[in-house]
Task: structure prediction
Amino acid sequence: MSYMFKNADQLLKLCKKLKKPLSEIVIRYEMEVADSSRKEVMDKMRKVVAVMKEAINGGIYEPKKSLSGMSGGGAGKLMKYFQKKKGRTYLNELAIRAMTYAIATGETNACMGRIAAFPTAGGSGVIPGVIMAIKEIDKLSEDKVLRGLFTAAGIGIIIAENATLSAAAAGCQAEVGAANACAAAAAVEMRGGKPEQAMTAAAMAMKSALGLACDPLGGLVEVPCIKRNALGTQHALGAADLALSGIVSYIPFDEVVEAMWNIGKLMSPKIRETALGGLAVTPTGMRIRAKLGLPALKKSHLLE
Amino acid sequence: MPTTYSVFDIAGPIMVGPSSSHTAGAVKIGQLARAIYDSTPEKVVFQLHGSFGTVTKGHATDRALLAGIMKFKTSDPRIKDAFKEAKKRHIEYEFQVVDLGPKFHPNTVRVILQKGDKTMSITGSSIGGGNVMICQVNNFDVDIRAMAGKYKSIIVSHESSNRSLEELTAYLIKKGHHIANVQTSKINSHAMSIVNIVKKHLTLNEVLALEQIPGIEFVRSLTKLAH
Result:
């Protein structure tokens, strides 16, 4: 039989028919698409995990300033803060670790270090942040981590098929927003939630990011991207808790993706990765433009 | 056209930062342009359109495109030093900011490769998450997606009568290839076709045999791109 799916509805039907979690259908989908064995597919994902770990460790333990000087060293700072506070942080250990790893990944990326662009480089912190933090706190096996990543990829496939994963086409909602949805579904499955609950979590996480502009300072994947990834992990974890409690998304995931795409089409190109709107044109953004040698913008530019 | 995503189009590519569209995608467009041109150019002109033109420097899009022309992978740490590496290889390069018009995706580049009297232009778009498509070869509209999907693409430049293409497909079938689909774009008496085949790659001998068919100018076989 075929395990191909193009949207959430088709994916959930396959889960129901076979009484399997999302990850299992996505693994079989990939075996079919790439004409590969289960072992080949799993080994390929193991490489992704290795790169994720390397990027996290590099970001925390070998902090570097980025070329622009805007980022670097944040992950280590957050980790030390948590250790010092001995449990008296607002967020619990899992949540803080998720943010730490997301920042570490973003900081590695900003220094032209190696990362897995899952689902894109701009949104690459959320998924490793959430999944690695859950793995450590819940003491999960490698298999559970791989399954979380396949579930996340399944959500990404649905978004890519029916909308876009490009901030140049639909703003940050299509990158960090998409990553939040991927991570939320993975978090539900990793705690034993049902496929419908995972999809609900993806819908809620995506809904909270709708309309998000892509407005990076100087066009660099640093500000606000890195911290947006960190806080994105909290959307994902929060959405997972909501879904696991039995709350249902009133709007199904496929329709949320449709909404994300139509909002993307309504967005001005100025807030779609061109660094011509939003935070990118604040006084601080203008200073960075000048520092990078980008042409100066007049105030009237925003009204055009 | 095949738009089936692999899990690893989403969970990847494994790449050197900072941007999947502007760095990794740019490397892939460079790799594809190099593969279609089929030799190391002496000079490359990159015409940057849309956000490829505005945010080039910070994303190292320029270095990434050049790295692709030199066949570097998206995870190659030498991308940082692409300008130096190009000098070593005696490749001249130039970047121009242009407006190719509204028909093109905001992340698009036209790559013009030159060596002696052999010039070719390849236009590619980075469509998100490091996925790219080639949308023009020498001004012929095409749709070649470099995804880890089911198909292998063959690019055929031929005269616009269908005879040469028919002979080519007949040869492929005889050699046991399965043709998924064919798309042809014509300008005057000339045409460019993309033939997508399933599973098996063309061998070098098969490519050479296809180029012997009357009316066929060249044949390029694209394999899956490496990360």
Q: What stands out?
A: The longest helix of chain A spans residues 38-61.
